[in-house]
Amino acid sequence: MINEQMYAYGAQKSSIREIAAWGAARAAQIGAENVFDFSLGNPSVPAPPQVNEAIVRALALPPTELHGYTPAAGLPACREAVATSLNRRFGTGYGPGDVFMTVGAAASLSCTFKAVVNPGDEVIVIAPYFPEYRVWIETSGATCVEVPADPVTFDLDVDAVAAALTARTKAVVVNSPNNPVGVVYGTETLTRLAVALEEAERTFDTSIYLVSDEPYREIVYGAEVPWVPGVYGRTVVCYSYSKSLSLPGERIGWVLVPDTNPDHDELVDAVAGAARALGFVCAPSLFQRVIVDCVDVPADVAAYAENRALLCEGLKALGYEYVEPQGAFYLWVKALDPDAQAFFERAREFELLPVPSDSFGCGGWVRVGYCVSRDTIERSMAAWEALAKSYR
Ligand code: PLP
């Protein structure tokens, strides 16, 4: 008599993690250098040295202070540092009260959905999408509604979103730079989305939140990432340092409730309530202190930029089609078989481990994570070539 929904999430497992586990087992059999695992979004760039320096400084604190509970929403100094950094970058006027520290973007998103959703609501995601969205949306009590991205560019298809908005739509999730396709949504696209959401709010007499999931904001290759609350007021921003500072195992991020939200004060309390209900209060104390010191440390994207160029050039020369990534560290490659799962199985025979697009709610493609060593990309090229040849 346990909870069936939770049982199903646990028993199904994440297909990305299953592939990574298979890769690890295979590496133990034939040597890690012979397996080309492109499955996980685990940063290959080390955390910047300032992180370790901040940790050493924090270790000088009395242990009861360092390891003690922080306030539920986080240390005032940490929330202040985040707000001040955002204000400097985006010309905003946020305060520490607008920021809630969390255990990574996973918690930021879970809290945000829980904070805004009522039973029977719908939350729109743009397919292909990060698969955990569905778990968090359904757990909040909403239905996850998939709206396809543009099938060629994989940009946000505003008309498709507009057509999917109903009286039950409570939120739309945007993720830019995007996992898995690497697209960055431009101001013009976001502005059209904002107009569509405002129109639907008037038509249905409802409130629709834009949930902006931004763990890859700083990982871009020349593209500018618009500040979403500047385009649409009813936006909640979910962020994490998992990618920008290469700290995925430390579980640190935040939710921002911008002052542009008409129901700002209630929403701040609802996020706090959701964090309380879900058990996501008091984000790791040591890493809140690290963020105070490292909030403005730039992300090191040089290695990803190199990997991106290497992978794109290599696969292009072999005749593969892909979406030119503007950000994040994934290449969205067209499968050589209409059945992406079948293509993945064939790739695996060549020790290549991308993620089939079915995992992201769309067919016919694979995601190749280039947050790996340069050497892995270089040595994988013979396998990509053999894979392509096997289809000729
Ligand atoms: N959102 C997207 C688009 C992601 O790719 C990830 C992680 O890969 C997350 C959210 C979750 O991030 P975190 O590890 O900070 O919980």
From TrEMBL:
One of its GO terms (molecular function) is transaminase activity. Residues 34-380 form the Aminotransferase class I/classII large domain. InterPro entries: Aminotransferase_I/II_large (IPR004839), NHTrfase_class1_PyrdxlP-BS (IPR004838), PyrdxlP-dep_Trfase (IPR015424), PyrdxlP-dep_Trfase_major (IPR015421). Its cofactor is pyridoxal 5'-phosphate. Keywords: Aminotransferase, Transferase. Its EC number is 2.6.1.-. Pfam families: Aminotran_1_2. Transmembrane segments: none annotated. Belongs to the class-I pyridoxal-phosphate-dependent aminotransferase family. NCBIfam families: PRK06836.1 (NF005305). This is Aminotransferase. It comes from Granulimonas faecalis.
